[in-house]
Design goal:
Layout: E1 2-6, H1 11-20, E2 26-31, E3 44-48, H2 54-60, E4 66-69, H3 82-100, E5 104-108, H4 120-133, E6 138-144, E7 147-148, H5 155-164, E8 168-171, E9 177-178, E10 181-182, H6 183-192, E11 203-206, E12 212-213, H7 214-225, E13 231-234, H8 236-249, H9 257-262, H10 272-275, H11 285-292
Amino acid sequence: MKIAVTGATGFIGRGLIRALSQTKHDIIGLSRRAAIPDDPSSRLKFLSADIHNAESLKKALLDVQIVYHLVGIISETKKLTFAKTVVGGTDNLINACHEAGVGKIIYLSALGTGPESSTKYFQSKWRAEKLIRKSGLEYVIMRPSVVFGPEDKFINMLAKMIKYSPFTPIPGNGRMRLQPIYVKDLSAILTAILEKSEIWGKTVETGGPEALEYREIIAIIKKVLNRRRPNIYIPLWLMKLNAAVLEAVLKPSPLTRDQIKMLGSDNICDNRELLNVIDIKLTRLEDGLKEYLR
């Protein structure tokens, strides 16, 4: 079977490509610039395709049976917006799938997405999900919590802050809960979906084995790094005010009001439905960090 992956050179894309490369399938990594794979083989190649260009996608998807759609953004820039990239890009991909004869799509959404979502990020993911459900393609929609690994932007940002700042800022009371999932585990789950017919046609939520408060995550990172830093609790309203100023002068902003709003609520799920179908031992945050964080 021939499988394509959009966003193949991104953080999660690289992990998924490595996992898929261990299967017997032919893998095509799609990115705006063709890249050299980590482990070149006759069954793995990279092609240039832009999610904003349906024609380039159509050409890259010829003879493909399944496409993983991983392209997304966490904040907007002058050129890339949620409407253009997350929603419009998904629409372009669906049209390209129909024209190229692709029958199945696995979409990486995000935990917290839903019709009542209050942030622009989650709203765009919801709109993209709706396009996929109405597309006529066979689909799986996967909603992971925070994904961590050697190249993630969130946990590594916190680690860098802990290394070099004399104190650690904590948003609000730090009690919001997250369920970090190791990129290796998510990649294994996404790969296993190929053989699990009972998951197709569903929207599946997933996270790691622990629901951790933000302040617990900070404590685990400090423990792994062997750093002692006092915590400073910052009211969410003040963080939103700072984010508004940053958004007014920087594109992309290192901190957005959307992101602060997301930190104001839990991002956890019940893994039992997924784990009843896919046999995997999920990695605890501390154990995963010990593999690469220094």
